[in-house]
Amino acid sequence: MTDLRPAEIFAVLDRHEVRYVLIGGLAAILYGAPHVTTDVDIVPEEDRRNLMRLSEALTELKARIRVAGEPDGVPFGHDGVSLAKVRIWNLVTDLGNLDISFVPSGTRGYDDLRRDLRTVTVNGIDVPVASLADVIRSKEAADRERDRAILPVLREMLERERGDRRGDRVRGGREGPRARG
Fold first, then answer.
1. pTM of the model
2. Do 42 and 14 meet the contact criterion of CB atoms below 8 Å apart?
3. How far apart are CA 68 and CA 168, in angstroms?
4. Higher confidence at residue 15 or residue 177?
5. What is the pLDDT of residues 70-128, one digit of tens each?
6. Tens digit of pLDDT for each residue in 52-83?
7. What is the pLDDT of residue 136?
8. What's the Cα-to-Cα distance from 128 to each of 13, 30, 41, 65, rounded to whole Å?
9. How far is CA 99 from CA 89, 152, 165, in A?
10. Where exactly are the structural domains of the chain?
């Protein structure tokens, strides 16, 4: 199995101007979760031109279909049209595993996830990351054992984040310019 090099995967997606949102375990890690993941999970925008750019990026990544018993994966031909016909792609690339899902569990896809996304800079690349609440929503809906194991930590992180934001608003309301005027 190839070591996961997410920053390099992001660089390829960026170079090809692929519009996507990062979700899943790596998104949780970027929020600070003590989590281990073996793949990059993305939700691409389904626009035809974007899927063509994604196909070009997959070619550069030498993406192959991940199949049990085939550690190097199975080669496949693809373009924007063929990528759109399958709702979930589990791929192996020269930079690690890449999973593509058009509508992850508990979400309505790209437009739903991009509403509250945050941008995180990874090695100089701006990565669009699903909100922590959306990561939790998706993991709850997937209801896999590995997701259930990390959910208590993610929920605690979200509560802490919300508490910090409430505290900022309260402090800002008392001490901000409007309170003085």
1. 0.88
2. no
3. 49
4. 15
5. 989 999 999 999 999 999 999 999 999 999 999 999 999 999 999 999 999 999 999 99
6. 999 999 999 999 999 999 989 999 999 999 99
7. 97
8. 11, 11, 12, 24
9. 6, 24, 32
10. 6-175
Coil, helix or strand at residue 94: coil
Structure tokens belonging to residue 127:
């990565």
Rounded Cα–Cα distance for residues 102 and 84 (Å)? 8
Alpha helices, H only, 16-67: 25-30, 48-60
Q: Distance (Å, rounded) from C-alpha 22 to C-alpha 24?
A: 7
DSSP 8-state code for residue 24: S
- Find the Cα–Cα–Cα–Cα dihedral 165, 171, 175, 178, rounded to 10°: 50
CA atoms within 13 A on the CB side of 94: 8
Q: 6-175, what's its fold?
A: Beta Polymerase; domain 2 (3.30.460)
Separation of alpha carbons 140 and 135, rounded Å: 9
Q: Is the dihedral of CA 125, 128, 129, 131 positive or negative?
A: positive
Q: Do β-strands 39-44 and 96-101 pair in parallel, antiparallel, or remain unpaired? A: parallel
If one counts every other C-beta atom within 10 angstroms of the C-beta of residue 89, the result is 20
